[in-house]
Amino acid sequence: IAATQPSTNWHLKENARDHHTSRFYSKELIVRRGQAFVVSFNGIEQPEQNLTFIAETGPKPSKLTKTQATFGISSTVSKESWSAVLQSTSSNSVSISIYSPPNAVIGRYKLSVQSPSSGSSSPAKLGTFVLIFNPWSSGDDVFMPNKAECEEYVLEEFGIIFAGNKNHISSFGWNFGQFQDDILNICLAMLDRSLNYRQDPVTDVSHRNDPKYVGRVLSAMVNANDDQGVLQGNWSGNYENGKSPSSWTGSGEILQKWKKSGFRPVRYGQCWVFAAVLTTVLRSLGIPTRTITNFSSAHDADGNLRVDEFYDASGNNLNRTADSVWNFHVWNESWFSRSDLGPSYSGWQILDATPQEESEGIYQCGPASRHAIKEGDVDLDYDCPFVFAEVNADCMYWNYDPATGKKTLIFSQSTTIGEFISTKAVGRDDRVDVTNDYKYEEGSRKEREVFKKARKKLGLEDKFDPTAPTQQEIDQKPDISGKFKVAGPLEVGKDLNLILVLANLQSDAKTVHVNMTAWSTVYTRRPVHEIWKDSISVTVSPKEEKQFPIKISYPDYQQQLTRDNMIQVTALCHVEGGIQVLVQRDLSLDNPAIDIQILGEAKVNEEVDVEVIFTNPIDTEVMNCVLQVEGNGLLKEILEIDVPPVKASETSSTKFKIIPSETGPKHLLVNFSCDKFPDVKTFKMVNVID
């Protein structure tokens, strides 16, 4: 007869080791599907052959929705369904190995056992465990054959995100922290707070065996639009009633904040924050995931594979359309098979949690097969046209006269969108360029064929577009060419020196009236403050090249700069008797450097001193200095240190202690902020020994 409540031994250590889950901080068993785990229990006095186990998940478990399984003890495991094999028995303790199928629904399960002698009384509860995706199992949709890639894209808690612009790629560290205490629970709560779950919990849970479904739902839940999800976006340049997007150094703080506030959206995110949080959530659930940065990324709001930008006669970007070209945009790739599309479309899938355009009525994006993007198969699920445009759209630059509403094409470009597509290397802190996985070489015949194919599939080839430029406009050739050259360092705190180079391409002299502006922008190239303007009139002799030095002093731009440290410089050249020429450059300024020194050897459970050094490069004192430090396995929680003001040209040193809790390579991330330099970031790898 079944005794009182059986006591269960979940063999946490052994199971976690076998299932690659030992990095989770959890007292609950966390195992991966498609792989056996061991459970022992006592208090059931019964020939064990007659026991029946019940594993169930979700609000209304049933066999029909694959959210409930009942299984007895058999001699061998079944690869197709839940099964149990006897490991050992003693006087009143039973040890069994439970196997879940590789396509089981993921989530928190209740496990109970029923013995015949207990008759119709309810089964004895053994407890709960969490089942997640298994990239190490060949039967799982997320199976990733390369073990080093599993290590990086599932188990690595540190990442590097690339930013800046195509002329100047910068990078910063990020603490994904997918194994931190309670993060997995928050990920499961995200699924239970989704619109799909609220509308139909039973159907929603039954689809959680499918990484396509889980990825798409979570791409909606990471942004707050529609569903009170995790992060509220803000691209205004004003972040007063929240934390500025550039101040975060890891996902853990954001996810914990969301839960602690009663699931109210956390303020604020921009693309890399959305992408980093989605990376954390998907890695935590076992789906291999990485962040991808696309430079000169198109946001094609009207689906015509074309981005239009409008400038007035003075050269100001008029910001007239929903279309835009971002200096960079960060999204995700997750690895899983696409049985819905066919084997060639399996592998890396694009997901994007940044709320840009609605898909099926809500702000979600993907999974779009990366192979489909490269081949122009924009008719395939999900959201391929939008992603295809991000890396392939053509660019049209127009002059617009607000008084008459007349627009004139200045020029068009088909090779500047989607450059230097970047991600972190496997096992190293380096950048890897994956542009060739997204498209054929710019300007090649194959690349233009794919673009045509995509236009055809979207019905753009046969449709008359009254907003498109005429072939005559596209073919017109300018009389002069121009470019901005950078002369000297692009650093916050220093004057900016540029040279406008104008070249006369014709054999007769040209008179040119040049209107120049410089605006501070956010990284989406949205203009925020005018910094400087000037105009000149020049005559350029036949085939002559002329240079005009431009200086924008630090006091001129210091007040106007956004936290993105970006400035757009534009020269609109009106050539007498010829067509206008637009010269443009996006500048991404570097913050001053900070340096981290580890003073001594880092050993497990022993204090070690760390010093952070900052030199103030400007000739005024900087105030309100704060240092934020985090690092898995190095600090229990985020450290915030107030730093005294730093006088002009002086160096500040801040010391603190860390106590490493695990061996191996760990990363310490530092964010230093003051009134003149917000969010100066750096990281250091710390090798912790026994």
From TrEMBL:
Active site residues of this protein: C271, H329, D352
Cofactor(s) needed: Ca(2+)
Alphabetical list of InterPro entries matching this protein: Ig-like_fold, Ig_E-set, Papain-like_cys_pep_sf, Transglutaminase, Transglutaminase-like, Transglutaminase-like_sf, Transglutaminase_animal, Transglutaminase_AS
Keywords, ordered alphabetically: Acyltransferase, Calcium, Metal-binding, Transferase
Manner of cofactor binding, per the entry note: Binds 1 Ca(2+) ion per subunit.
EC number assigned by the record: 2.3.2.13
One Pfam family per UniProt: Transglut_N
Alphabetized Gene3D superfamilies for the sequence: Immunoglobulins (2.60.40.10), Transglutaminase-like (3.90.260.10)
Top-level enzyme category: transferase
GO molecular function, one term: protein-glutamine gamma-glutamyltransferase activity
Reaction catalysed by this enzyme: L-glutaminyl-[protein] + L-lysyl-[protein] = [protein]-L-lysyl-N(6)-5-L-glutamyl-[protein] + NH4(+)
List of residues binding Ca(2+): N392, D394, E442, E447
Residue ranges annotated for the Transglutaminase-like domain, each copy included: 263-355
Family (UniProt): Belongs to the transglutaminase superfamily. Transglutaminase family.
Protein name: protein-glutamine gamma-glutamyltransferase
Lineage: Eukaryota, Metazoa, Chordata, Craniata, Vertebrata
Gene label: Tgm3
